[in-house]
Specification:
- The chain is of the alpha/beta class.
- The chain has two domains: 3-82, Methyltransferase, Methionine Synthase (B12-binding Domains), Chain A, domain 1; 90-208, Rossmann fold (3-Layer(aba) Sandwich).
- 57% of the residues lie in helices and 13% in strands.
- The protein is built from nine helices and five strands, in the order ααααβαβαβαβαβα.
- Strands 2-1-3-4-5 form a five-stranded parallel sheet, sandwiched between helices.
- Helix 6 crosses helix 7.
- The protein is globular, with a radius of gyration of 17 Å.
- The protein binds CO-5-methoxybenzimidazolylcobamide.
- Residues 45, 49, 52-53, 59, 62-63, 66, 98-105, 107-108, 144-146, 148-150, 175-180, 195, 197-198, 201 line the site of CO-5-methoxybenzimidazolylcobamide (B1M).
- InterPro entries: Cbl-bd_cap (IPR003759), Cobalamin-bd (IPR006158), Cobalamin-bd_sf (IPR036724), Met_Synthase/Corrinoid (IPR050554), Meth_synthase_dom (IPR036594).
- One of its GO terms (cellular component) is cytosol.
- Residues 1-88 form the B12-binding N-terminal domain.
- This is 5-methyltetrahydrofolate--homocysteine methyltransferase.
Length: 210
Amino acid sequence: MSLYDQIAEVLQKGQVAEVQRLVKEALDQGLKSEGILNEGLLKGMMDIGDRWKRNEAFVPEVLIAARAMNGGMEVLEKALADEDVKPKGTVVMGTVKGDLHDIGKNLVVMMMKGAGYKVIDLGVDIPAEKFVEAAEAHQADVVCMSALLTTTMPYIKTVVDEFENKGVREKYAIMAGGAPVTEEYVKEVGGDFYTKDAVSAADKLAEIIN
Ligand code: B1M
């Protein structure tokens, strides 16, 4: 079994320490971070997601797999951070209020950090006021939001409106993404940018901040 397959397998069993050990081993063997992420960690996460959809796995199993995913990403993040150092700009990032999904957000954060940006990660379930406070406190260039549920997607508008209400909307570029989010939707609710995945989100920063 390849190292990628082993990572995907132990991730689904929720074995954090073993996932981290295998990710380290893969890095030591010279495997690329991108391959470890896509073929190993994400592959395992998608497999358990599919099993959940088919009622072959249950929420606690998805949760422990998610914890193992984040553990593996910590190791990868360190490796990516070592590759680049000078901050190119500041980003405030969070998953919107009511939404606890953080794997995609963490991936976006990791790619942005890896691309050389300072990222203030607010976490999950973040109310609109917190986005504004953090953007102001850290003099951010870009405010980023993640939403994974069709029920929390409308909160992107709440956050944009909060920036308007506080009179600071023009100071920041606002970008949003997440599985149910579309470019049309982000534009419709007054945001500036949509990107579909972590790599394109990090790439987009180079266009926004210059
Ligand atoms: Co949730 N969940 N979940 N869940 N969960 C989904 C999203 C769902 C599609 C599953 C399903 O039904 N098939 C479904 C949403 C349906 C919908 O709204 N249309 C769903 C549901 C319904 C729920 C609950 C309501 C279930 C319940 O309790 N009845 C509940 C809600 C809890 C809450 O948030 N309030 C819930 C709970 C959970 C867990 C806690 C068990 C767990 C989350 C653990 C965690 O995140 N720490 C979980 C998980 C793991 C999933 C699935 C299986 C995987 C999500 C994921 O991590 N994907 C998911 C089904 C699936 O996607 N197969 C599902 C991998 C990740 C890398 O992708 O997050 O899309 P993603 O991020 C991508 C892009 O979207 C993009 O880049 C990322 C990387 O490429 N992106 C951005 C994300 N943010 C971006 C921001 C950007 C740009 C790009 O710019 C700023």
